[in-house]
Amino acid sequence: MSRIEVETGGVDILVNNAAVAGSLELQPFDTIPPEEFARVLQTNVLSQFLCSRAVIGHMRQSGWGRIINLTSGTAFIGVPNMLHYIASKGAIVSLTRSMAMEVGQDGVTVNALAPGLTITEGIESNEAFSQQMRDGVVASRAIRREERPDDLTGACVFLASDAAEFVTGQIMVIDGGATFH
Fold first, then answer.
1. Which of 40, 120, 123, 145 is least surrounded by CB atoms within 10 angstroms?
2. How far apart are CA 10 and CA 55, in angstroms?
3. pTM of the complete model beyond 0.90
């Protein structure tokens, strides 16, 4: 039994949303320090693996659970000067699909949300994500506005609900229509 199961009685719904993004320096891949690459993978991918591992015992035992991972639409399109971030988000796509195959027979679903550039406090404070870059992202969308964290709420609630009991291993792109996946 994991510590989280002992302290809470078990987690039925897990949303893995930890990530390093807004604080990253945009730079060519051959100038990214290996330590920074490892830090991004550890925060963005290993944290999702560890949190999922901590709760899966209870979910399997109860025969019901929802794991929702946050990835990024950049994993499908590639963006220059963000290789460490994009590699981590691509890994989350694979992690989601593999976990779904392992735990589906136990009544647990594993899906991911893939937002586009979302205006968070971290993004707001990072000059590299200038208004010009943000305007370019908005111009690429069918729904021409900036994405905010609240734009993910409805999809997250759906994936956490009984209505999504037959949805697993899926990556739901939520980016205002910039990426059709």
1. 145
2. 7
3. yes
